[in-house]
Amino acid sequence: MIEPLVLIPPMLCDARVFYAQLATLSASMPITFAPITGGERVEELASQILSWLPQKFALAGMGLGGMVAMEVLRRAPERVTRVAFISTNAQQDTPEISALREPLIIAAKSGRFDDAIGAEMNPAWLAPGPYRADVCSLVSDMAHALGPDVYVRQSRAMQRRKDQQDIMRRIKQPALVMCGEHDGQNTLRRHEFLAELIPYAKLEIIEKAGHLPTLENADAVTQALRTWLKQPLVLR
Question: Which of 38, 86, 143, 217 could potentially form a cystine with 12 if both were Cys, beta carbons 3.0 to 4.6 Å apart?
Answer without folding.
Answer: 143
